[in-house]
Design brief:
The complex is a heterodimer of chains A (1157) and B (480).
Chain A lengths: L1 H28 L7 H22 L19 H6 L17 H6 L18 H12 L16 H10 L23 H12 L10 H13 L5 H9 L5 H11 L1 H14 L21 H13 L4 H10 L15 H4 L8 H17 L18 H12 L1 E7 L7 H35 L1 H8 L21 H14 L8 H7 L6 H11 L9 H8 L6 H21 L3 H4 L2 H11 L21 H20 L6 E7 L7 E3 L7 E4 L6 H4 L12 H8 L7 H14 L20 H13 L4 H9 L2 H4 L9 H12 L9 H4 L12 E2 L2 H11 L36 H5 L18 H9 L1 H16 L9 H13 L5 H17 L13 E6 L1 E2 L4 E2 L3 E2 L2 E2 L3 E3 L13 E3 L2 E3 L7 E7 L4 E6 L1 E3 L8 E7 L3 E8 L3 E3 L2 E6 L4 E8 L7 E3 L3 E4 L12 E3 H4 L13 H11 L1 H4 E2 L1
Antiparallel strand pairs in A: 1-2, 3-4, 5-25, 6-9, 6-14, 7-8, 10-11, 11-12, 12-13, 13-22, 14-21, 15-20, 15-23, 16-19, 17-18, 17-21, 23-24
Chain B lengths: L6 H4 L3 H9 L7 H4 L32 E6 L14 H5 L16 E4 L6 E4 L4 E4 L3 H4 L5 E8 L5 H10 L9 H9 L9 E4 L24 E3 L6 H4 L10 H20 L5 H23 L7 H7 L3 H14 L4 E5 L12 H25 L6 E6 L3 E2 L2 E3 L12 E2 L3 E6 L7 E3 L1 E2 L6 E3 L2 E2 H11 L8 E4 L2 E4 L14
Classes of the chains: A alpha+beta (1157), B alpha/beta (480).
Chain lengths: 1157, 480
């Protein structure tokens, strides 16, 4: 006890010390700025004359509080006004009002720079004079809120130019170290160099048992067997550990462990999240194939660059076989966001950019990234890549499916697909036709496009409603036709350029201005506007609408389509029929297109596609499936969505990689969607992030801490790496090793850093205290305990003790109990329902919508968003899982059995041998003398205490459920025995039904089943809780024409027969008018077989009601309803453990089992 | 932190320490003892790995310590409950003048409320006859008649009301609050969600932890069940008696102590040792908390029979035991979604919830707990003042969804009772006066708990996230 309290005290002292140091440092930095009195007057001028102007006339658009900041200019801080906005020029030049842009703007000298805008009104002359005076005074400005100003994009680029993560990966020289003895690999040089700077060394090597245990968990997620440990301990060769590492890397268990880490990065799940029932299947068809592909890729040591490229663009990669398409689950396994396409794309951008580049590009969806040089434009360049791809389901080559089952699968699949496609095509055609007839309405809607709602406001309920998605398609189409003179649309753009208040006056001139346009205006369009100049944009839209719909009608109705239209008319018609026409529904998968349809059609099409997916999921002959992205036939460049609003389009931009990584001379992507080019830009040795990010992740999983503390954020705000040179050296070695992940593991595991111990000797409390005092004097810190100098072990002076994560924990429980099923791949299995799956956790079914409790409480990676790192919490619910959870108990039983302790007494081995066996299986060591003694004491006490008598289940309230012999001749009940087992739904003989002894006898809420013979009639007994008069009502039904039916009767007190019935495929009312009962009296409802045991189930749920006055019955129910009251408490404890099983469970609960030194 | 760091605490032996914990963890701060940081960092090692649910101090002294959120899912009609619109009677059966708002389905003529309104309490606030019991508590309630959400569809609106964002996966209000404050009782989950009969629409998304650690997710309980084993996962053993379990734990602690003594200080080892003791006590305490048979009959009568009475009474027992945030859903699916025959549908639902909700206010008040318990009563949006038309254009005497104007009521926790705040237009289409967006409601709730909503943040994916995103204003006029 004394020991642990000292430790606590020491910990407190350390943290106090740390806090004190922090406080000192921050006090030194933040010396308050004090204004001298000489400046007070100048400030007063600012306060009384200048600030009010700025607040009243400028802040609305130029301050941190602005709803919409204009031109990146902040006038609400000293720094902002001096720095200026997006123009890059300062707003004021202190001392020189003449040259200050602020004065240029407010004095309206420059027609293009008038502020406040003319609409708001020019400042008064006196105000302008005040501003001039102020600037010429040197612009004294007391405002100190400089931190409020976000850096401009240009600043961010400048900062980023020197940011470590954006520099090319270097190949730094291996540093020399003093303590050459500790060096085993160059990694050690890098680590030791930093440690020696702090007068630290590595901790002495971990013991062999610890080392093999550590490496085995680390590489496979499972403990070593006692035999493996013995062999390693005995192997004195210098190559012994290298051989262990090689053996582990070659094990198929390796891919299952490390593949799961990647699944965290890939926000993997087997379900889509919340979906509309019936309209979308909740499970993914492609998740199992993706998970297996990942595991396989790790096991095969697929080069990491290829691993990434396949996941992003397997559909376009040379040499990728059919099964590689499974890799694209990386993109397609995200949440579905109820089909809101912008969110689906956002999820894909996030998973790729944080996963592979550790860049938080998603921040740039609505505005330029606050800290990193990632402009919104770059976000939409990537958006364009994904928007240019649509989903497709692809059957993979399973190789193993039995031929017959496969054929059956195909036949039915074809049927379902044909049904879907024929409906889909018909609906598409129907919808396209409707859209062609509603051009005018859509063009009018385009005029108000910014007011449109996003998809989550799904008011597109009926077919004739205006569909916002189509309006936006028209809007993009018109925007892109504005870039060159378009023979059909040039007038539209010329009219829309007119200011609203001058529209009528200037409309007439528009056609004249276009007379010399090249290419020439389409004469049909020209004619339509020549007759009568439009009075507003609305009229322009209507003229176009009439024209387009008219031409289409003429063509549709014509017998000879070839001659129906003139060449000019046909040019107009092409607007509606071209492949990229906004008036037609494009081709692709329904998931990419559902928003083109009204609600009932979406439901219908969704329902048909659910049928296809269900079949793929259900059929035993179904091969694995992938869902891939493939490029759309027509590509267009994306628009920036201002503030993330798809209805508010900014500039159109090319699809390309991030400028900060691709450089100023980056080239737009040219091939299709650009996805392959994106993959290549990422998986390139020239990319400064890809290799660094990955080696950091690998380091993190090995050591429990990364070289960069934020594994998915290498941006400018991230903590810099503790060992930048090592990070580069590793990244470089990784790439030079052909991006081989296994080589990287070997490199790391063979280092002395990895093999050092996790504990080192500590100093006594008194020594500690005195040394702490010395450290605060900033000297003599070389002889401080290491943990004081580096309390978080940032410099790796010892190995971090690691706690098993949920998968390793569950797998290890199964492993030590001898239950683990090592089957590889295939369909996911439910982990938390009985009978429990015995497969590795990586094959467990992950439902992101209903993430099971154990996964939540054990800090499983969120399957919704890319998870950089798991949190590690300790909550009592975890302990409950160990103490009471059926899964742990099952493993405890198996462990006891396996250790020769199952069933208790049949095994000949001594208790000591059994205890030793368990310790070796779990901890790979013998028990200590003390543990052996404690264990034996526990076993003795437990054996004495545990009663093996099964405890009978309890029935609720007034009802009892039993069976017995009924003597029909003597008209009496000869016996009543309680049915011993309650299943939750029924009272019966045992866990399985029929039961070995009590056969078919069963009572349920609504009826039951008679027992096998007349000695086993089933009896529902009511015990009167009160004195009074009761009436009985109910009906008995036997519903089978087969067999001979049942006999039923009601008895009071086991001797007074109140009614009897023999029923075969018929029903009878079973009512008893009124009967007096005393508290404790019984009324039995008895059913037995009639003649034979065959079809003897029945329905009978009687109701008993108090009729007379209640005597001594305050608070009692007035009615007892057999159905409503039905229930029970399961036997408790249901299955008591033996002393050995209890003991095995304790060992599984221990810290030694959960923590790896 | 609840208490400043006291060095004496550090000299406790573990056994004495555990004994003290047994007196109630709220009494002392484990967090202080172990140097737990106030902001969680998802790092693998160090002191921050201890139980993140331990109680924490807010940023400033809050008026409320705990929250109950009655969620009337499906969209209760404001014009039939707390926002009377006599003008609808004037136009009954006729089209209303002016522009109709666009909602999910088409609506037609003005549809006056079939319910009568009555002035209640000292404040004389008008409440419909749907809610006679709540009407009797109106002087303890603030009625916000000018709520505003974004879209007329259940899913995004549920997300907005619960998580502050219509579409993206964001942590829920309850998760943010337990993240910020921890919970007072380590023997019970800190954030409990009860819903009779299963799940509301959007299911577990409504109480998701988002990017916050998993322990902050709401623990869902199907309150139709009455047995503790069905209510909380693994709360009882089917294999070992409590006595046997105690013996097991004693052996476990011997093992763990020997293990720990052979190693250097590692807070995680100690913390896991304690977690077993906590779990052991939790089994008893949880069963007790959910057992309403321990309540006197008068109290059970106050809440009324039926599942809502039971659920609400359980909620009160949980509040007393220090549970931080309790959400009480009306039922599975979206019960308040009365597209047809609103008189009958709303009438029945109101009857189920009115008495229990009012009982909670009264009961907390007489226990002196209303002052620091914040009660929220409302749905994800309101309904149209016009009658909904079916596809053939006929009225079915129901109303469509309306996020543009609706009512949410607050009570307790430093809220000024007997207050009406804001107003919708003449007919109840849109909030027009002192509009309170859902973000503002969230800001106000956090404020009452002692948080500046702009400063309760969590760093994720390179950004500091908060419940109110970049919005939210505290509605100060309804604060006492």
């Amino acid at each position: 006890m004394q020991e642990s309290s000292t430790r606590l005290r020491r910990r407190i002292l350390f943290s106090l010390l740390r806090a004190a140091l922090r406080a000192l440092v921050s006090a030194a930095i933040s010396i308050p700025l004090m204004a001298t009195s000489a400046r007070a007057n100048e400030f007063e001028f600012f306060e009384s004359r200048v600030r009010p102007i700025l607040v009243e006339h400028c802040y609305a658009c130029h301050s941190a509080e602005s709803e919409k900041l204009k031109s990146g200019l902040f006038l609400d801080s000293r720094e902002g006004i001096r720095k200026g906005g997006d123009s890059g020029k300062p707003a004021i030049i202190p001392g020189n009002a003449e040259a200050s842009r602020l004065i240029e703007a407010v004095s309206y000298k420059n027609k293009d720079l008038q502020m406040p805008p003319p609409k708001a009104g020019k400042l008064k002359e006196a105000q302008i004079t005040d501003l001039v005076t102020w600037i010429n005074m040197g612009a004294p400005d007391p405002r100190t809120n400089s931190s409020a100003i976000p850096a401009t994009l240009a600043d961010k680029y400048n900062e980023a130019k020197t940011h470590w993560a954006f520099q090319p990966v270097k190949n730094p020289p291996v540093p020399a170290v003093k303590n050459q003895k500790q060096v085993q690999t160059p990694i050690d040089n890098f680590i030791l160099a930093k440690l020696e700077d702090r007068d630290l060394t590595l901790t002495s090597p971990a013991g062999r048992r610890t080392l093999i245990r550590r490496a085995t968990f680390d590489l496979t997620g499972l403990p070593p067997t006692p035999e493996e440990v013995d062999a390693f301990v005995a192997d004195k060769s210098p190559e012994a550990f290298a051989r262990v590492v090689d053996r582990l890397l070659a094990s198929p268990r390796y891919g299952e462990r490390w593949g799961r880490y990647w699944l965290d990065v890939a926000r993997f799940a087997d379900t889509k999240g919340y979906v509309y029932g019936g309209r979308e299947e909740a499970k993914f068809i492609q998740s199992a194939a993706y998970r297996d592909w990942i595991i396989g890729a790790f096991n095969a040591d697929m080069p990491y660059d290829r691993f990434l490229k396949l996941q992003i663009a397997a559909d376009q990669m040379e040499g990728a076989d059919l099964n590689s398409l499974a890799a694209m689950g990386y993109l397609t396994l995200g949440r579905r966001f109820l089909g809101v396409v912008h969110d689906i794309i956002d999820d894909r951008i996030d998973v790729v950019m944080r996963g592979t580049q550790a860049l938080t590009v998603g921040c740039a969806r609505c505005h330029d990234h606050k800290f990193d040089p990632i402009p919104t434009k770059d976000y939409y360049s990537l958006y364009g890549v994904f928007a240019g791809s649509n989903e497709r389901q692809v059957p993979l080559n399973s190789g193993t499916a039995p031929a017959k089952a496969y054929l059956d699968f195909e036949v039915e699949l074809k049927k379902r697909e044909e049904k879907f496609y024929s409906t889909f095509n018909a609906k598409r055609e129907e919808q396209s036709k409707r859209l062609r007839s509603k051009v005018a309405e859509y063009l009018v809607a385009v005029l108000d496009v910014e007011k449109l709602h996003n998809e989550d406001f799904y008011s597109f309920v009926q077919a004739d409603d205006i569909n916002p998605v189509i309006v936006r398609a028209w809007h993009s189409y018109l925007l892109s036709s504005a870039k060159t003179v378009h023979p059909v649309w040039a007038p539209w753009h010329a009219y829309s350029a007119l200011p609203t208040n001058e529209f009528a006056a200037r409309a007439e001139g528009v056609l004249i201005s276009l007379t010399n346009a090249t290419p020439k205006l389409n004469p049909v369009v020209e004619k339509a506007f020549a007759e009568k100049p439009p009075g507003s944009m609305r009229e322009v839209a209507e003229v176009y609408g009439k024209l387009l719909t008219g031409v289409d009608k003429k063509w549709v109705e014509a017998a000879d389509k070839k001659k129906a239209l003139s060449k000019d008319e046909d040019e107009v018609r092409q607007v509606l029929y071209a492949e990229n026409s906004p008036a037609s529904v494009p081709s692709g998968a329904i998931v990419d297109m559902e928003w083109y349809f009204d609600e009932p059609t979406r439901v219908e099409l969704g329902g048909l596609s659910v049928k296809i997916e269900q079949w793929i999921l259900q059929s035993t002959g179904a091969p694995p499936h992938a869902v891939i992205l493939e490029d759309r036939p027509h590509q267009r460049n994306p628009y920036v969505f201002k503030r993330g609003n798809p209805s508010s389009k900014g500039e159109q931009i090319p699809k390309q990689f991030l400028e900060i990584l691709a450089g100023e001379n980056r080239k737009p992507f040219t091939k299709g969607s650009g996805r392959l080019e994106l993959a290549e830009a990422i998986a390139s040795p020239d990319n400064p992030l890809t290799a660094r990010v990955f080696v950091n992740r690998v380091w993190l999983y090995h050591f429990g801490a990364g070289l960069v503390g934020t594994p998915s954020d290498f941006g400018t705000r991230a903590e810099p790496p503790t060992h930048p040179e090592l990070l580069d050296w590793l990244a470089n070695a990784f790439m030079e090793g052909g991006w081989s992940v296994k080589k990287l593991h070997r490199l790391i595991l063979l280092s002395a850093v990895y093999q050092q111990g996790s504990d080192r000797a500590e100093l006594s409390p008194d020594e500690t205290t005195s040394r702490i005092q010395r450290v605060s004097n900033r000297n003599g810190d070389s002889d401080l305990p290491d943990s004081t100098i580096d309390p978080e072990n940032k410099y790796f002076f010892r190995f971090n003790r690691q706690r098993l994560d949920f998968e390793a924990l569950r797998d290890s429980l199964l492993f030590v109990s001898g239950q683990l099923d090592l089957k590889v791949g295939g369909k996911a299995e439910e982990m938390f329902k009985t009978p429990f799956s015995k497969r590795r956790s990586v094959y467990g079914f992950i439902d992101r919508q209903f993430l099971p409790g154990p996964l939540r409480i054990f800090d499983f990676a969120s399957p919704d968003m890319h998870a950089p790192q798991r949190s590690e919490t300790t909550v009592p619910q975890q302990a409950l899982f160990f103490l009471n959870g059926a899964f742990v108990v099952e493993q405890a039983k198996a462990l006891a059995a396996r250790s020769g302790a199952g069933g208790g007494d049949t095994n000949a081995a001594s208790p000591e041998a059994k205890i030793s066996r368990m310790h070796r299986l779990l901890y790979q060591r013998e028990p200590t003398a003390g543990q052996l003694k404690n264990s034996l004491n526990f076993l003795a006490a437990a054996s004495a205490a545990i009663s093996n008598k099964p405890v009978v289940a309890r029935a609720p309230s007034a009802w009892k459920y039993g069976y017995g012999e009924f003597d029909e001749a003597g008209k009496q009940l000869k016996s009543f025995e309680t049915l011993p087992h309650f299943s939750g739904d029924a009272w019966q003989g045992g866990k399985s039904w029929p039961d070995a002894t009590l056969g078919w006898a069963q009572l349920t809420a609504t009826g039951g089943h008679a027992g096998n013979d007349l000695q086993h009639a089933v009896i529902r007994r009511w015990v009167a809780p009160v004195d009074g008069a009761v009436e009985i009502s109910g009906s008995i039904k036997h519903t089978h024409p087969e067999g001979h039916g049942i006999r039923a009767s009601i008895f009071a007190q086991g001797k007074d027969q109140l009614g009897k019935w023999t029923l075969h495929n018929q029903a009878a009312e079973a009512n008893v008018p009124s009967i007096e009962v005393k508290q404790g009296d019984t009324i039995d409802f008895i059913v037995s077989i009639d003649q034979s045991l065959s079809y003897n189930d029945f329905l009978w749920a009687p109701v008993i009601r108090l009729t007379g006055p209640i005597r001594e019955a305050n608070g009692y129910a007035q009615e007892w309803n057999a159905q409503k009251d039905f229930g029970g408490t399961p036997p408790e404890p249901r299955e008591p453990l033996t002393a050995w099983e209890e003991y095995a469970q304790v060992l599984l609960l221990s810290n030694e089992f959960l923590f790896i030194d | 932190m609840h208490h400043p760091l006291n060095l004496n605490d550090a000299f406790l032996t573990r056994r004495r320490f555990l004994t003290r914990c047994g007196m109630g963890l709220g009494a002392m701060s484990l967090a202080a003892l172990f140097g737990e940081t106030s902001v969680l960092v998802p790092a693998a090692h160090g002191a921050e790995n201890l139980n993140p649910l331990l109680p924490k101090m807010p940023q400033f002294p809050g008026r409320a310590k705990r929250v109950v959120h009655f969620f009337l899912n499906g969209g209760p009609s404001h014009v039939d409950s707390f926002d009377p619109k006599p003008a609808l009677t004037k136009y009954a059966g006729q089209p209303l003048p002016g522009e109709y708002i666009k909602t999910e389905r088409k609506t037609g003529a003005a549809f006056p409320s079939p319910f009568k309104f009555k002035r209640c309490g000292q404040s004389g606030i008008e409440v419909s006859e749907m809610f006679p019991h709540l009407g009797s508590c109106i002087d303890d309630m603030a009625v916000i008649r000018s709520m505003k959400a974004e879209v007329p569809n259940h899913e995004p609106s549920l997300m907005l009301m619960n998580c502050g964002d219509a579409v993206q996966s964001r942590p829920s209000l309850g998760s943010w609050i337990t993240y910020g404050l921890g919970t007072e009782n380590q023997n019970l989950p800190g954030f409990i969600v009860m819903c009779p009969g299963g799940y509301p629409v959007k299911e577990t998304d409504n109480w998701q932890n988002g990017f916050l650690p998993g322990v902050f997710q709401g623990t869902h309980i199907d309150s139709q069940h009455t047995r503790i084993e069905k209510l909380i996962e693994n709360i009882r053993s089917n294999y070992t008696s409590i006595k046997e379990q105690r013996r097991q734990l004693d052996l476990l602690q011997q093992l763990n102590e020997e293990h720990q003594q052979a190693r250097q200080t590692d807070a995680r080892l100690e913390s896991r040792i304690q977690s077993f003791e906590l779990a052991f006590r939790m089994q008893m305490e949880a069963a007790d908390a959910f057992d309403i048979s321990a309540e006197p009959e008068t109290i059970r009568d106050l809440y009324g029979a039926g599942v809502h009475g039971r659920q609400t009474l359980i909620a009160r027992r949980l509040l007393e035991r220090g549970v931080r945030f309790i959400q009480l859903w009306h039922g599975a699916g979206q019960p308040w979604d009365s597209h047809e025959n609103i008189e009958k549908a709303h009438g029945k639902l109101a009857k189920e919830i009115d008495q229990p909700a009012a009982a909670l206010i009264k009961d907390l008040k007489q226990r002196g707990m209303l002052d620091d318990t914040l009660i929220i009563f409302g749905g994800e949006f309101g309904r149209t003042p016009t009658v909904e038309l079916n596809s053939s254009g006929t009225a079915q005497y129901g109303r469509d969804h309306n996020p543009f104007g609706f009512t949410t009521c607050l009570a307790g926790g430093g809220i000024k009772g007997g207050t009406v705040y804001g107003a919708t237009d003449e007919f109840g289409f849109k909030s027009v006066e002192n509009v309170v967006h859902v973000h503002d409601l969230h800001a106000t709730i956090l404020h009452q708990l002692g948080f500046d909503h702009e400063k309760l943040t969590y760093r994720y994916a390179g950004r500091d996230f908060r419940l109110t995103d970049v919005y939210g204003k505290v509605v100060r006029d309804i604060l006492a």
